[in-house]
């Protein structure tokens, strides 16, 4: 079967031949339909993030997949059922985080991640997976199934943000997304269409003619150009916000988030920056957090419950927006375009088989 693999840091993704996998007991065989690409894939390709599987000299990419069960292999799944795989797998049998169904909370070294760290991904015509990590998705959403994993990242982030504010009456009205990449725009769409914040903002560094900036206003958000108004000046220019969702990976935004927040607000950090030393007024930040009851938290990955919530959310996103997100789906023979598509395409994916 065909697969897309890379030697991280040493080259471009290449089309390779691999034997079709045989499911082990408890695993199903899945025929891959579509696999999305995000910033993490580009970081893996560049060698900045992730790791090869033990003993391998390349990594099959892909962690945002949707497929169809080819062989349930004695599991409770049905042949022909559409499924979305979760990303983390246990490296060994004894792992309390996986036993609790919370692999997303496992520390480094206690998990592998398919297509990212220590395990081959889903960019292959077939893959196998334990059935417990395959989340059924309705047939009418299957074409959009590669969006479930990124949405699940935001489901988890919001669950943790809300939990951090659960000790008091918190009634957020305004939200700010930092970043107009795929994760930022999907999250903005969730804020507008599902959570129905009264006012939303999205920060980028593109001219107003850029397609993503148009999407921000079509979604109902106010675009903020960080070259004119840094995140820390949003309270002066617009308003202090109840929730900040950072999806830029720009390390200064972790600190500017605290200044952008209204009293009792919460900031969630998603970006994965490289080391970068710069000056911050630590005293002011510390004081802001304390005197205004602010919270700042980091979050990574997501578990099965977040995937299930993401499937519900996907069904609620406006059709015009999901159509926009599928305009960058490329056939397997044009897979390179999916990695090299210009900035005008919000989200790209590779189609291994027609949905
Ligand atoms: P992208 O890199 O595609 O998007 C980042 C966006 O932020 C780009 O639009 C970029 O603009 C913008 N940006 C960067 N710096 C600034 C700045 N100083 N001012 C304004 N805008 C800025 O990534 P994704 O959308 O795929 O993901 C977002 C982040 O989340 C990444 O860091 C990724 O690694 C991380 N991530 C984290 C996950 C988790 O579980 N925690 C899961 C998935 C992703 P431009 O294009 O103009 O440079
Ligand atoms: Zn992803």
UniProtKB/TrEMBL annotation:
Q: Which residues form the Alcohol dehydrogenase-like N-terminal domain?
A: 25-138
Keyword hit for Nucleus:
no
One Pfam family cited in the UniProt record for this chain: Glu_dehyd_C
* UniProt entry tagged with the keyword NAD: yes
Sorted alphabetically, the Gene Ontology BP terms of this entry are: non-phosphorylated glucose catabolic process
| InterPro entries listed in its UniProt record | ADH-like_N, Glc_1-DH_arc, Glu_dehyd_C, GroES-like_sf, NAD(P)-bd_dom_sf
Q: Name one GO molecular function term.
A: zinc ion binding
Q: Which SUPFAM superfamilies does the UniProt entry name for this protein?
A: GroES-like, NAD(P)-binding Rossmann-fold domains
EC number(s) given by UniProt: 1.1.1.47
Annotated keywords? Carbohydrate metabolism, Metal-binding, NAD, NADP, Nucleotide-binding, Oxidoreductase, Zinc
Biological function: Catalyzes the NAD(P)(+)-dependent oxidation of D-glucose to D-gluconate via gluconolactone. Can utilize both NAD(+) and NADP(+) as electron acceptor. Is involved in the degradation of glucose through a modified Entner-Doudoroff pathway.
**In its UniProt entry, what is this protein called?**
Glucose 1-dehydrogenase
Q: Which species does the entry assign this protein to?
A: Natrialba chahannaoensis JCM 10990
Q: Which gene encodes it?
A: gdh
